[in-house]
Amino acid sequence: MFQLTHMPALKRVRSQAGVTFVELAIGLAIVAIAMSIGLPMMSNWVMTNKAASASEFYADGFALARREAVARNASSRIVLTPNVANGQMDWQVDVCYPAAGVRCSDSTGAWSTTAAPATNDPKGTDGFKSVFRDAGALPQSDVLLPSIEPSGASTIYFTSLGWVDTTIDNRLTQIRLDPATRLARDIPVVAVAVTLAGTATKCNPTLSAPDSRACPP
């Protein structure tokens, strides 16, 4: 008799403990709305951070080339080459130990490579091998477009004192990174310029002196 009397109450408790179709639909709708808002924001955040890392990528290369020249009392250079996958620029740092009165030349094979040290490296086969960095992790060029100044330049040469070798014609002085129009509010225009003293500086190429954020002349 006890079981028959309380059966309806038990069924009500069990039905109340479950999830109805309407409640499930509302929950899924809320999740869908949250994802539709959150995923684009997350994607934009990732893209913005990748774009910000691009200037660091190039600044690190310029700084490494200067450090190697000073540390090894040698000539050094950084060479930028297009990355075919994303339109950004890979870089490679080489060193050279010129003979007295003789300039380093590509034709003599005096520069280091990623496979072998430079000719006349004091450490012989254990000497410095070129450092190559792939720009494949940077944003596509339709997101962040690189441009070189002056146009057509690709290399900066450093003396053993760490200064830019001004005897080299058409030397690279700056790489500029412009965001796509649709991302201009989130990603600022930035450039990495190299002064004659060999120092790499991040700057805003759209500004001019006396603004401290402007690129050096």
Automatic annotation (TrEMBL):
<dbReference type="InterPro" id="IPR022346">
    <property type="entry name" value="T2SS_GspH"/>
</dbReference>
<protein>
    <recommendedName>
        <fullName>Type II secretion system protein H</fullName>
    </recommendedName>
</protein>
<dbReference type="GO" id="GO:0015628">
    <property type="term" value="P:protein secretion by the type II secretion system"/>
</dbReference>
<comment type="similarity">
    <text>Belongs to the GSP H family.</text>
</comment>
<keyword id="KW-0488">Methylation</keyword>
<keyword id="KW-1003">Cell membrane</keyword>
<feature type="domain" description="General secretion pathway GspH">
    <location>
        <begin position="60"/>
        <end position="173"/>
    </location>
</feature>
<feature type="transmembrane region" description="Helical">
    <location>
        <begin position="21"/>
        <end position="42"/>
    </location>
</feature>
<keyword id="KW-0472">Membrane</keyword>
<dbReference type="GO" id="GO:0015627">
    <property type="term" value="C:type II protein secretion system complex"/>
</dbReference>
<dbReference type="GO" id="GO:0005886">
    <property type="term" value="C:plasma membrane"/>
</dbReference>
<keyword id="KW-0812">Transmembrane</keyword>
<dbReference type="InterPro" id="IPR045584">
    <property type="entry name" value="Pilin-like"/>
</dbReference>
<keyword id="KW-0997">Cell inner membrane</keyword>
<dbReference type="Pfam" id="PF12019">
    <property type="entry name" value="GspH"/>
</dbReference>
<keyword id="KW-1133">Transmembrane helix</keyword>
